[in-house]
Amino acid sequence: MSTILDVAKLANVSTATVSRVINSPDNVRPKTRERVYRAMKTCRYKYNALARGFVTKRSHTIGLIIPTITNPVFSESTRGVQDVANANGYQVILGNSDYQSEKEAALIEVFRERQVDGLIITTTNLKGNILKNLLDDEFPYLLLYSTVRKGPMPSVGVDNFLGGYLATGHLIQLKHRRIGMLAGEFRFSDRSFHRWHGYKKCLKDNQIAYDPELLLHARYTPVSGCKGLKRFINAKNPPTAVFCSNDLLAIGAIEGARQMGLGIPHDISIIGFDDMQIASFVSPSLTTIRQPTYEMGRQGAEALIDIIEGKAGKPVHKLLDISLIPRESTGANT
Amino acid sequence: MSTILDVAKLANVSTATVSRVINSPDNVRPKTRERVYRAMKTCRYKYNALARGFVTKRSHTIGLIIPTITNPVFSESTRGVQDVANANGYQVILGNSDYQSEKEAALIEVFRERQVDGLIITTTNLKGNILKNLLDDEFPYLLLYSTVRKGPMPSVGVDNFLGGYLATGHLIQLKHRRIGMLAGEFRFSDRSFHRWHGYKKCLKDNQIAYDPELLLHARYTPVSGCKGLKRFINAKNPPTAVFCSNDLLAIGAIEGARQMGLGIPHDISIIGFDDMQIASFVSPSLTTIRQPTYEMGRQGAEALIDIIEGKAGKPVHKLLDISLIPRESTGANT
DNA sequence: TTGTACGCGTTATCAC
DNA sequence: GTGATAACGCGTACAA
Questions:
Q1: Distance from CA of A132 to the nearest CA of B (A)
Q2: What is the pTM (predicted TM-score) of this model?
Q3: Do A281 and B255 touch (CB under 8 A)?
Q4: What does the alpha-carbon distance between residue B88 and residue A161 come to, in Å, rounded to a whole number?
Q5: Are A143 and A154 in contact (CB under 8 A)?
């Protein structure tokens, strides 16, 4: 593989000139520029971005850590991150934490060793010292899908508390009084935790006693949602409506109800969270809380790049809008 | 940021020894090893993998090019690639081509400039000289979801022709004679093209005349599937069954039928392709052709790493098994 | 406008 | 078992 030195020799210029042709072509006389371009062609020169990164100490790479790319919600935000990153000359390295904080910590280490210019993290545990280390090192990073709203850690997210509140309010408005919640494990996802708080608060505001029997934990998969719903139905005093803390759970729950011979929303109402692409295409279509995942990725990447490039002021804390999308999976309690 | 030189000074050893402690600790006396470890701690040393890559000419990075991470099928295979890559010390850079060969070509360039050790490409156009260039440069790469079965280009995929044949055969067995196909654009996806060939061949083998009116092209989205199905229904002589060339289309088609007031499978049968995670959770659950996407990613990454590390013999051509998964969206023609 | 020369952090090749 | 030192390919003062 040829280097700028080869090109330089071939074009009878110095390596500095070749470098200039690559990075600031305007600073070089058109004639020599042409000569260099020709030389690059004849020796099939390929630019080595790694070597550049080595000297400039900028890899133009962003590390993106998410629970798993397999969840459509994170695919969407990943796409948003990528689009903004690429538009700004950055590439994205992807890492899955599987909701395990050890994997998360390991990924942060690996990515930093690889000299990524910054990190976007959808974290599962804020207690560790890992994030504090990043802060101490003044390493550029940003929390995505974050529940953090103030402090030194930059973040982009939605108001999960509000989401839980909206979902529950919708069900209460439909005359439901016995409302279950199928939630992701709190220790793995503080988002789920905040949604639960919104749920509880809304119950309280409507004079409905909170019943711990109506909280069930599940993994974020349809299968788990299906099982969870069946457990609810088989309880002594089953709910008439269930708030699932994401759409994958909700879709599983719908299937679970179906398998138990229950009509939706006639016998039981189901509401999800996320509004992933297929939420409107399942049958019955899914009532859910929409969060702008793609946009979240975009804005997260924009904010991170600002930090990386020194254009940022004090830590940003963006809270994107969410909204209730009423569809067919919820109906009046009869 | 401290370097091995700082560590070396602090531990009173040479940089070579520090490097040894990092890469082959057994080759260094335990006592000095300890001294070095301590020195690394006191000056908060962080290993620079970029610098290593620069000298070893191995970045331990794989470039993965897919149409879009937003399609669950590609999320799954991406996960497979990542799992194998990470287990072998590689990281994955992700690029979306959006089914555009120019973007694909640009990504290949960018990734090569970044000195990725190899590429995994789910390509959309094999005609270009781009892949031939890779071959000429002896650059490690592999085609995923590939229809290529022989020749110098290593590939992992499934038999899409067979898939199309199986899907069509299933419908014919259910007494359907007028079978439509909702297909991804052939020029963007040779996979779709091969499925169509399987479809045609199966019709022929069953003495059913091929009717070009029964081929409709669509983008790989539920919305497009929905529109496509409506167009079919509004035709003079509509099909009684539709083979969609992926599940996203099929889910959209089901919704389209529903909006037209048609019962599934009573009024019209729908079969998809992929068996993505939620295929069994939509209602009616989706009959489809299952392809092992996660496993495809795994095997692709394994094969690529073999090539990178010089363990490969002649180009591999793996064809993974596919199978018909009959569910509720298809039924007998009445 | 162009060239010279050094440095970036690590590994690898010799010696010792 | 350890040390000295030359690469690796590029950017960038500084000089011309």
A1: 15
A2: 0.95
A3: yes
A4: 40
A5: yes
B205 within 8 A of B170, measured Cβ to Cβ: no
- Residue A41's CB is within 10 A of a number of other CB atoms, namely 11
A62, A120 in Cβ contact below 8 A? yes
Residue A300 CA, chain-centre distance (Å), reads: 9
φ/ψ of residue B115, rounded to 5: 65, 35
Q: What is the DSSP letter of B237?
A: S
- Within 7 Å of a protein beta carbon, the nucleotides of strand C are 1-5, 7-13
Q: Contact, A202 vs A232, CB < 8 A?
A: no
Q: Containing H/E element for B273? A: strand B269-274
> In one letter, which amino acid is A199?
Y
> Residue B196 has which token pair?
């169509």
How many residues can be counted in chain A?
A: 334
For A152-205, the pLDDT digits (tens) are 999 999 999 999 999 999 999 999 999 999 999 998 889 999 999 999 999 999
Helix (H, G, I), strand (E, B) or coil at B326: coil
Count how many Cα atoms sit within 13 Å of the Cα of residue B178 in the half-sphere of its side chain: 13
Inspect the interface and report whether the beta carbons of B70 and A76 lie closer than 8 Å.
yes
Alpha carbon distance B175, B272 (integer Å): 18
Length of chain B (residues): 334
The 3-state DSSP class for residue B42 equals helix
Cβ proximity of B301 and B61 under 8 Å: no
